[in-house]
Q: What sequence folds into this?
C-alpha cells in the first residue's frame, strides 16, 4: 500500500506544537497498524466525512484528514475541528 503526505499536510503538521506532532504521529501509526491487521479503528474516531475523505482524531483538539483508496492512502490535512471544516469547504 502506498502512503502519501501532501504538502498541505506537511505545512499544517509543522505548525503544530511538538507534543501535538508526536500525538499525530502516534495516531497515524495506530491507524495504519489497525488497517493492516484488518481491525476496526477504535479510539481514534475513524469516520467518513465527505466522499472519499476520512478523519481520525488525535486527542480532543486535532483531526487528521485522509483519502483512503484501495491501494493507497493520502494524508491531506491536520488541524483543529474549525480548520478541518474550512479545509473541507474548499474541496
A:
Amino acid at each position: 500500500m502506498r502512503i502519501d503526505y501532501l504538502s498541505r499536510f506537511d505545512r499544517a503538521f509543522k505548525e503544530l506544537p511538538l507534543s501535538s506532532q508526536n500525538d499525530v504521529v502516534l495516531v497515524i501509526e495506530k491507524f495504519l497498524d489497525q488497517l493492516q491487521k484488518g481491525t476496526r479503528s477504535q479510539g481514534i474516531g475513524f469516520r467518513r466525512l465527505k466522499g472519499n475523505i476520512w478523519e481520525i482524531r488525535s486527542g480532543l483538539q486535532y483531526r487528521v484528514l485522509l483519502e483512503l483508496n484501495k491501494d493507497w492512502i493520502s494524508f491531506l490535512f491536520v488541524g483543529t475541528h474549525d480548520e478541518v471544516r474550512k479545509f473541507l469547504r474548499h474541496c
